[in-house]
Write a structure and sequence with these properties.
This protein is mostly helical and 155 residues long. Helices cover 66% and strands 0% of the residues. The two termini are 43 Å apart.
Length: 155
C-alpha cells in the first residue's frame, strides 16, 4: 500500500488528480503521442536542404540555409519550455555537422590529407552565417511563444 504524505500528496509531493499542482504539471508536460519531436525538424530539414542543394549541383547553399533556419524555428515552436535551451544551444552544432558532413560525404575524395583541414575551415566559414541566423530565429519563436502564453508578462 503506497504511503501518503501529509495532505494527500503522492511520493512526488504532488496532490491527487484533482489538485491544482497536478493540473499545472499535466499542462506543462508535452503530450506524448500527438506532438512532433523537436529533433525531427531541427535535424531533418537541414539534411533535406543539404541534399536538395547537392542534387541541384550548387553544393551546400541557399536551400540548406533556409531549411536550417526554418528547422530550428520549427523545433523551438514544438519543443517544451525545458527544451528551448537545447534547441537554441544545439542549432550551431547541427548546422555545422550537417553542412560539413554532407560536403565530406559527397566530395570525400577532395578532402584527403592537408585538404581536409582547408576544407574544414571552409565549412565553418560558409556555415557561420546560417548558424548566426538559426539562433535568432529560435529565440524569436521562443519570445513569441512566451508572450502568447502570458508568461512573458509580469504581474
Amino acid at each position: 500500500m503506497p504511503s501518503q504524505r501529509g495532505g494527500g500528496a503522492d511520493a512526488d509531493g504532488v496532490r491527487g488528480d484533482s489538485g491544482p499542482v497536478r493540473e499545472r504539471a499535466r499542462r506543462a508536460e508535452p503530450s506524448g503521442s500527438g506532438r512532433l519531436p523537436a529533433a525531427l525538424p531541427a535535424i531533418g530539414l537541414p539534411v533535406l536542404g543539404a541534399l536538395v542543394d547537392e542534387v541541384t549541383g550548387s553544393g551546400v547553399g541557399p536551400v540548406f540555409a533556409v531549411c536550417a533556419v526554418l528547422g530550428t524555428a520549427l523545433a523551438a515552436a514544438v519543443s517544451s519550455r525545458a527544451g528551448w535551451w537545447w534547441v537554441t544551444a544545439a542549432a550551431p552544432a547541427v548546422v555545422l555537422a550537417v553542412a560539413s558532413g554532407t560536403e565530406y560525404l559527397v566530395h570525400g575524395d577532395k578532402y584527403q590529407g592537408k585538404a581536409l583541414a582547408t576544407g574544414a575551415l571552409r565549412w565553418v566559414v560558409h556555415a557561420f552565417p546560417v548558424m548566426a541566423a538559426a539562433v535568432p530565429a529560435a529565440l524569436l519563436v521562443i519570445v513569441v511563444r512566451s508572450v502568447r502564453s502570458g508568461r512573458g508578462r509580469r504581474g
